[in-house]
Amino acid sequence: MQNPADEREERTFLTDAPGILNTDALFSDGTESFVCPMEADKGEVVTIRFRASAADRAEIFFCTKDGEKLPMALERSEGAFAYYAVKIRLTDEPLVYYFEVHGPGRQVCYTKEGVSLQPDEHFLFRICPGFSTPSWAKGAVIYQIFTDRFCNGDPGNDVLDHEYSYGGGHTRHISDWNRLPEPCDVGNFYGGDLEGVRKKLDYLQDLGVEVIYFNPLFLSPSNHKYDTQDYSFIDPHLGRIVEDGGQVLEKGNQTNADSERYIRRVTDRRNLEASNELFRILCGEIHARGMRLILDGVFNHCGSFNRWMDREGIYKESGKEPAGAYLDPESPWRSYFIFRDEDAWPCNDSYEGWWGVDTLPKLNYENSEELEEYILRIGKKWVSPPYNADGWRLDVAADLGCSPEFNHSFWKRFRAAVKEANPDALILAEHYGDCRSWLQGDEWDSVMNYDAFMEPLTWFFTGMEKHSDAYIPEQVGNYPNFHDAMLYHMASFMEPSLLTAMNELSNHDHSRFLTRTNHIAARAGRFDYDAASEGVSPAVMREAVIMQMTWPGAPTIYYGDEAGLCGFTDPDNRRTYPWGREDREMLEFHRQVIRLHREHPVLRTGSLRMLGGEENCLFYGRFDEKEQIVTAFNNAQHEITVRIPVWEAGVPMDCEMERIFRSDSDSYSGEMERCPVRGGILTLTLPPVSAVVLRSGETEKAREQKNKN
Questions:
Q1: Do 4-130 and 448-599 show the same overall fold?
Q2: Alpha helix (H) ranges present in 185-318?
Q3: Which of 27, 197, 311, 382 is the most buried (most CB within 10 A)?
Q4: What is the pLDDT of residues 441-468, one digit of tens each?
Q5: What is the pLDDT of residue 708?
Q6: Is residue 325 a contact partner of residue 331, using CB atoms and an 8 Å limit?
Q7: DSSP strand E in 139-280: where?
Q8: Which of 600, 638, 598 is nearest to 617 (CA)?
Q9: Under CATH, what is the fold of the domain 609-708?
């Protein structure tokens, strides 16, 4: 089989011939190099640029979706390229556009899809006046912490055996930190807490973490805390318990109103305020290190323990609260929920739960302006002094409300409220599927990037579904599928959103990526737990991490991935961090590749250019005016020689690139090696299961040194 890179090289040189437009030279995107300023306000003038071959002397036209067509002026010629520009003053409406290229022998259109004869609306470029995402979040290295499983820093706040009833049984304190999660794990607690995070800040900073994303911290009866009991307070079991005492539940008693110990711990104002104060201190220490933190907001539903519902009678027992909606139709919070049976009180079980789950009552915003205003205040509270959290990750954000119209209306209000309180806060949503309608500049900043990162990457490197539910061999190394999926789904993002998208390999909802490399389709509870770590491939994991650190977006590490943690999907993916049992080689690899990401600004905000691929291999470039980085992968079990048209990523036609990182089936290294580029083509021999990162251009460090001299 002929290497597609060889065909591409032949085509490149053919298009250099007179009379044929060099379509491989055409490029534009929404980064600062091609849209300046990238984030502009209404009334501001934006310079929009387009790149073509200098030899073609093409005519370039800027075309709007509304039919306007403007000629672009030649701005400069540089090496093989000519750069054209047009200046546009933004109105209060989104600017939606594409390019038309009239060159030797051909007339084509250019969109996010690349070259086409007719523009497809899905792939048009967009600028939304006034839309920006925080600069600190673009390309930031994020670390996700599921707090109960990260580090136990204060045993005094641990959930006790039989402290209360949840999930059909009494709570259990797991004293063996290394014990594996059970299939029914929601009421098992290992004791991880905020004090544990404080004690590990040195570790996180040394790793290179810039942002901590916490799974929910607010008061909640479960270990995952996606069933909020009170949005106003950090859970004392994660914070501080200064006032304690009372009886736990007796064996066989499932009535939480009898749990004196739990009621005191979670309703005593001294415990709640002490926990908020610990969080304030932690926020200050994180910020003092130059790091940021993001909170998890679960606003689509609350928990059945919530005072508004009070299914357990906890707040009724205290005598200090009005009756919850479960207990009394006259409750002040009755309108917060949807009850199907109006004659079932007291103890009305007919309320609507999210996906029918009775511990997750769906919130009925459309029927309560008071509820909506309260959640907006919560959105503002935690990003404001004295906490100053740096943003929100929004759980199942597309499900909030009972109609698309209200959903969009609410998130517009939420954005306005949060940004008013903290203009530099990030608003990032959990979402599966097309996110475009929420990414119009007035709702979310970005999303957890499943469609345009986790899924295509997982299929290419492992052939596994992201829960480890299925293995499809023909998906492994399927470059056309990877390319088309990335291209299609990335088109839903404007650049400010793409550069802040949370690019994960693993998280609390899906299997650990390292486990996916063993091609075992299974879930814990229906399979031997040991199978999660059998036959895994650290080399494939390293490939994936290298892509994570060189692809547009914010690379997000799920706690323990860097230490070689394995696990099938929930709850097995929530194993404790293996302190003292880390895979030291994997850990050091992460330190080095994170440092690589942080040392090269082009990996945060540079343009992306796919440079080709074939079965089991692919290559792409990240570039701006100062630096070009090319990453190449060989996911096959055999060596392969490839010819990569690096000139398309702005690399000079004849130069030497520096290989600055490599990984293969045996090892990894940051040792530099020079690789020649001839006629714009880089020829590489890639060993089995390998990745290489190469650079050309002047690094930030070199520029700083030059300025000093």
A1: no
A2: 194-199, 201-207, 260-267, 269-288, 314-318
A3: 382
A4: 999 999 999 999 999 999 999 999 999 9
A5: 60
A6: yes
A7: 142-145, 165-166, 169-170, 172-173, 188-189, 211-214, 218-219, 230-234
A8: 638
A9: Immunoglobulin-like (2.60.40)
